[in-house]
Sequence to fold (1334 residues):
Amino acid sequence: MVKKQEHEIPLTSFRIEDSFWSYFQKLVTDVVIPYQEQILNDELPDVEKSHAIENFRIAAGKSDGEYYGMVFQDSDVAKWLEAVAYSLTLNPNPELEKRADDIIELIGQAQQEDGYLNTYFTVKEPEHRWQNLHDCHELYCAGHMIEAAVAWYESTGKTNLLDIMCRMADHIDNRFGKGKVRGIPGHEEIELALLRLYRATGEERYLHLSQYFIDERGTQPDYFEEEEKNRGWHFWSKDGSDKNYAQNYAPVREQDHATGHSVRAMYLYTAMADLAGEIHDESLWQACLRLFDSTVNRQMYLTGGIGSSVHGEAFTVDYDLPNDTIYAETCASIGLVFFARRMLELKPDRRFSDVMERALYNGVLSGMQHDGKRFFYVNPLEVIPGLSGVQPEYKHVIPKRPKWYACACCPPNVSRLLTSLSAYAWGESVGQNDKTPSPADSENEAAASTDTCDTVYSHLYIGGTFTSKAGGGVTIRTETSYPWDGAVCYTVTPDSAASEFTLAVRIPGWCRDFLVSLNGQVLDTNSLDLRDGYLYVNRSWTNGDQLKLSFDMPVRRVYANPLVREDAGCVALMRGPLVYCLEQEDNGPQLQTVRLPKDSILTAENASDPVLGSYTAVRATALRLTPGDDLYSDEPPKAEETVLHAVPYYLWGNRSEGEMRVWIPEV
Amino acid sequence: MVKKQEHEIPLTSFRIEDSFWSYFQKLVTDVVIPYQEQILNDELPDVEKSHAIENFRIAAGKSDGEYYGMVFQDSDVAKWLEAVAYSLTLNPNPELEKRADDIIELIGQAQQEDGYLNTYFTVKEPEHRWQNLHDCHELYCAGHMIEAAVAWYESTGKTNLLDIMCRMADHIDNRFGKGKVRGIPGHEEIELALLRLYRATGEERYLHLSQYFIDERGTQPDYFEEEEKNRGWHFWSKDGSDKNYAQNYAPVREQDHATGHSVRAMYLYTAMADLAGEIHDESLWQACLRLFDSTVNRQMYLTGGIGSSVHGEAFTVDYDLPNDTIYAETCASIGLVFFARRMLELKPDRRFSDVMERALYNGVLSGMQHDGKRFFYVNPLEVIPGLSGVQPEYKHVIPKRPKWYACACCPPNVSRLLTSLSAYAWGESVGQNDKTPSPADSENEAAASTDTCDTVYSHLYIGGTFTSKAGGGVTIRTETSYPWDGAVCYTVTPDSAASEFTLAVRIPGWCRDFLVSLNGQVLDTNSLDLRDGYLYVNRSWTNGDQLKLSFDMPVRRVYANPLVREDAGCVALMRGPLVYCLEQEDNGPQLQTVRLPKDSILTAENASDPVLGSYTAVRATALRLTPGDDLYSDEPPKAEETVLHAVPYYLWGNRSEGEMRVWIPEV
Fold:
């Protein structure tokens, strides 16, 4: 029977001190959060107007203005508050905390007497509350504010926002459910939020309400069609007839392909996985496995981007992965991280953590300018200024990160993910010696005896100090220069003289050769306890024990499945978890003329740049074809030798505006 | 100074009896024209409704119905009538002629007292006549009916339609021009039609009116912006702000890149070239050269398709030639044939005739089902059922030819081109011994002495009998199995005992090796008079003289300019003028997994198919990659040997619905 293999652990249990990630965490706490606060308060000139906090003031009766923005503008504030909550665990900041408390107070004032909270429908159309769940995002906004409330409570211990959102959750619970009004959200989010609220409060009604929304999706009669029939008004022109868009083509347990709006899909699947673990629901787990497989093995870009089409910001069909008209919304890659993390809780298997890593180091990070002040919504794998951002098919593929968006879902999503990164690096299973079969068992893999012991899981290689209850209490210090270097050293310090537990460390799927040493002695690879991509090291750990991993990290040529039309004949360059790309800044224009010979020499080289900082570049001997005058010719184009300079994909678009491409024809 | 190097010659001067083209001409006369007549009369079930003839009945007061169809529905009748006119020169058909005369009588009855003719604005919105030239196609419809009138007059000698359209032309001339009302058409066509009307009638006002419309385009203040301002109503939502769409970004003589709606562009450029020759306008000729170069050397598909984007059915930017989201409207390739033909009149140069041939044998013919009853509007170079015709980006790329269209411009355009093919095969310059410098001179190529002699030009290799006035009168019989075979034999029969003239024969750009023999004696290649891709053979021809050409016609690998992103790393197969493609029918699905090794063996083989008939197939040893389970892998995909069967592109889509592709990755 499926069940969670990991406990929830507090964010503070892993303090990140890392040569790679600390930069981003500091960037978010010091730059991004204040920058976004200014935007939400409309204090920055020359950026897309937010008005999100002013909307709360208007709803609270403290201002006379007009509502402005998307129908889900409230969620920008929610996600920012959630990021602030996490940031306080990294960097206490009483002034920021006070300002956030003031906003929370304002949110409370904007709440209606019956618990309802949504500034759009409070200010603009109170008569239309709850009538257009397909388009109007009331449950979505509630979900995000619930997430913020849980984060705020867990970080600060304060219940101010939690109390507000419990009232809203109760309001929702009083309205929707079996024997009450029928409803499901067009944009999923409330489901995963209610599960977090359930765990924060212990209130089982929230678990059941989440399950109601999950179970109801895709059942007949179609809720969105019924809603559309009953409604005499429209917010947008969307109708509910597209059953893929909001993942309602079948009851969720019967679904087998990831469809529609990719962010919606990820938020739903995240909740499904979470719920499967909470209620030990095997059929839900099996659906999650199918949907994960559909997402990452047939519809995912090399960068962990998902969503091939701007139309519906959506998945299309298997193996359709255009690089230049791509959508690959930053939020979708973040959602994929959420989904993979929840799957990993149910089964320690690198098929989940590898994807989490891929998205984090590539498609998520690319969403933010290296200075934290500009953001991509769409993360292309090929950009051609003049087409990209200009021609109708490419209009959404903007070659330079804008400062803000009218639909600003992505920037605060990056903030909350990066400030809560600790939750993704480590897992812990303590005191679970009950021998309940794990999903691994159900797939005919015998649980090793070490499974009966406390286990800590190292999912990501991030420097810092992890404090675990395993083996009676232990501190594990990680030192690494990952992803620039493949060496990771874990130093164990038990609270008592010795501590028996299992340290389970992911061996990444990208790695062909690695060495493991324990206290300086190299372990025989054949004797290692390797299961599902995790190396299990069980022992009685004593003070100063060191487990060292050394992953061979050459530059790799990566090939797409030949069913992917758009990458036919092409190769991409990766090193460790990082996808590399060519930029015009380093390689000149007309990148489509570059060819990578099969025998070309690929090297990793330290590089430094005033904007990008220090990074590892990939250099490659290559060919550049010489365009002739003829559009078509019987003669193969002439070629000149050249040397390419590839940069990590997450760093692209930080310098001059120019061409970029990931996939290179191989010759 | 630019001037026409060819005279107008009557269609009847070249009687086609050809193993390739006679099929299509017979198909059009016997099947397509009656089929389209039924559709225009709404007599066929299960096809997109036309109503085009009924609209004329309503406008004539002979029926009470409601107008139906596009604002340019009249033009479908015009193009059909034009095709009927040409078809009567191929195959006299008194009954068809009578029915056409009845329709012409109806058209006359639909004409207003002031000469105005347009059923939409007569029936639906008489108060809005001539107020929306940008969108409403009144001048476009007039142009097509003028072309029909000229064709009808030239084929039958009857002036019934010519009289009607002279009244309409006079109406237009009375309204528009310098010192009268300002105006230019949104969709060009009237310009080239008025030039034909001028030549048919000798009335110089029509020449001047054509020149007015050409000269006025792109001048300031912008006509379409002014019109938009003055108008309080809209037909469509288009505004006049896009200066590329209707080629009004600059006065035509200053234009240097082909832009916007590609059919509009071709019709304009055709008229510009025609006018340049009529009025000896060197700057207009130079603009035509630039626009031809922009079209065919930077924006044309291998098939002679043009228009890369569905948005505006338009050109985009140089070297942007997506194969799967392509537009490449059949009408645009037809327009390119018109443009190339007019250019060729001004300068016998294979850069024009090669393009004419490329479009004719590929992108034009592909527009019609092999049975003449279905038609493509969009002619893709890659089709993937499930994406093509379904997903929003690919919605317009229908994998199977529909029977008819709501916007049915293409089908009758194919009909009129195929029935008038004689006009494209031969050219004639008789009695032009005036030593006026030709454009060739202006490019520093000395006119050979033979230029002072009568010349006949063989632009296309089509079997049949050409009757020329050259050298005092001569008949030239052509025998060939082109394009399946590279042998062409011209047998000359002078009207008198001997006849001195130059036979100028195109040596196609695709041909690397050829032999020429005169009366069985092979000519020394070094002694040939070859200029601009034409072989000039001047002599005193006597009865039975034979000039034989033998073009080596191997299967060729063709490469796109490396600036074309979408064809990077790919090769296409051609033989003679024919582009080849792979279809699922012959090669199975997942054509994106096919790779063509550089050293693979390519052979031409006779093939026969119940639907396609006899044709030459290309067979190629190749590789097929084996899709694994992984979406991305460090291992290059495994490959199996396979043999490909490629069919001529013009034949694609005639059998089962399936994948098709032209460009194949080369390894």
